[in-house]
Amino acid sequence: MYERGLNFTEIAITQSVYYFLFLIFELPTGILADKIGRKNTIILGVITKFTALIISVFSFSLIPFIFAEILFSLARALESGTGSAFLYDSLLYVKQENNYKKIQGKAYSMHLIGNTLGGIFGALIAYFSAISNIYILSAFMAIGAFFVAISFKEKIPQPEYADILSQELKTCSGHLFSSIKDVIKSRLIIWIILYSSLVFVLIRANLISLQQPFLLFLLMPKFIFGLVDIVISLGGALFSYFAESIEKYFGFGKTLILIPCTLFISFLGMGIFQSKFALLFLFLQMIAVGINVPIIRDFLQKQIKDSRKRATILSIESLIARGSFAFFALLLGFILDNYGVQNACLLTAGLASMGMFLLFLFRPVR
Q1: Per-residue pLDDT reduced to its tens digit, 27-66
Q2: DSSP string computed for 95-132
Q3: pLDDT tier at 197, thresholds 50, 70, 90
């Protein structure tokens, strides 16, 4: 986007559109996943993402990029929570739900290894050809994901499709309000959703808004962008793989403190130091990136007692997290264009410290 003429404020607008639309897409798609099946919802998300990638290739101004981000948002909403719900219910079916944390950790580790491969190929493509070719390669990967998705076997019972139009849609509002009621009744679920949202905003602030402007500030060539992604993804994959062991070593409570603390120190260092030494603080985020998903998602999954509402409740968590980042992304875009990347990093460090203080001040007793 930056190469094709958009400034940081306009780029922030595209990302805010992406995350604001989660406020519209997230809950309906979560309900859809509970009603028509997780496999079908994932397939629909892959098709939507493929379309968004193709549009991005031919975008040269703000409006087309916004349209592509609308489709990216819908695709992510279709996938958000659906995969985790699919995995957890599959484990329930074979009576292995206690292994969720370990399997989710390994799965997220594989996801980050995929990011690493993307960083390698992306860096090479950016160095030797046009950046738009990265979108083309991603479109081919989406085609591959489609064939993987149609091979899934869904074990939980699904309604007949003839009944979906005539009966199931009538119950969607009831299903939604019932799921919201389950969330409101549990202070623990509310707290972990707020905690998860804070961590999500901090991680996305770096990955989406700050990392590339920070590397531009350090005068790094585009090829290095991919190498930085490789280091963070590989480190995150390693921490994700051993997330369960890390939690056992530190304990659940200290692990919850560790995640936002590493993010706070990272952003503070990026905001203070003006040399390549600051890259060490950027790499510190691999700890939070790796252990965040398996630890927090496992804790939230265990608080959901009714599997029929699992995808919807996970969508509520995702909605709050992404809605929060939508507002923060706009602020970061404005700060980047007017006050520079280091002030944007210090602002994010301030959010980390204040959010962590308030969350642990009002944490519920387990």
Answers
A1: 777 777 777 778 888 999 999 999 999 999 999 999 999 9
A2: T-GGGHHHHHHHHHHHHHHHHHHHHHHHHHHHHHS-TH
A3: very high
pLDDT in tens, 114-133: 878 887 888 888 888 888 99
Residues 6+ apart with CB under 8 A from 38: 82, 83, 85, 86, 89, 154, 311
Whether 318 contacts 81, CB under 8 Å: yes
Entry pTM: 0.73
CATH number at residue 34: 1.20.1250.20
Measured distance CA(95)–CA(241) in Å, rounded: 22
Residue 284 near residue 265, CB atoms below 8 Å = yes
> What does the pLDDT look like over 138-152, one tens digit per residue?
999 999 999 999 998
Structure tokens at 3: 């190469």
Q: How many domains does the chain have?
A: 1
Looking at this protein, which amino acid is placed at residue 323?
G
Looking at residue 314, the DSSP 8-state letter turns out to be H
Residue 211 token pair: 């990392």
Domain that holds residue 267: 8-361
Q: How many Å apart are CA 263 and CA 366, to the nearest integer? A: 25
Does some domain include residue 113? yes
